Known about the structure:
With about 80 residues, the chain is mainly beta. It contains one helix and five strands.
Amino acid sequence: MTQQRPLDVLGSSENKRIIIRVKNRDKIMGTLKAFDSHLNIWLDDAEVSSADGENSEKLGTVLVRGDNIVLISPAK
Length: 76
């Protein structure tokens, strides 16, 4: 079994929907367009949901700075 590096796994998610959890516990979901070695993430069609899930807002195209990211997951 070959091991994959984390950036390779993230690269396989390009042009797919992902979920990002940031330090303030908000959740950002969008289509992964690009990323760099600092895990700065460019998303299209992004929307943010508050930690309590009560508020959400469409953002469009965003850049999420890597040092604010706690978790990245594929969207269901």
